[in-house]
Predict the 3D structure of the following.
Amino acid sequence: MRFSIYTEVQSWPGKSYDRLYGEVLEQIENADRLGYDAFAAVEHLFFPKFSASANVFGLFGMAAARTRRINFRTMLHVLPYHNPLVLAAMIHEFSLLTGGRYEFGVGRGHGWIPLPAGTPLDETSRPRYEEALDLFVEALHKDVVTFHGAYWNVDNSQVIPFSGHKFRVVLGVLMVVVLILRPSGITGSREFSLPRRRRPVADLEKARATT
């Protein structure tokens, strides 16, 4: 049995951001020392009392330099606010820098994010997200990507750096959870009791069949 720790990186009046991040880094160091399997944080925007965690790569990058074995888990990357090809390349690089210690999920995020982000929540939001998810998964598994859709069109786009690490995709819930295969094998799936997607993503179904 493995145990992990999860934080929302909540920001409350009276505590500076410097102190907040310092305390989280101290928690990660202690979790590594005590033998915890993973430390999880959210990627969250525009709602400070819930979370001040806008850059998980920065947080976990600092933590990686201070730890030896603990894994880092993002729950989750809010895909509509990322370029899927850029996010995939960032994940490949971070996986290389941490020696394969990175686990992550992707999803649409909370309904309060679009307006503060200046993004309309309209009839295109779901199909745009699902197409971005298809492209994102392509970039996780291929170093050169060609993709043509209604919202994204690329020809021979190189994913640099490309780690060569294998990722496992778990389907069936609103949040798609992606886990890296560690050298010792599959870490196991993590699923959440949320409403099912209205339609499956074809490439993800294909990925599931091969894992």
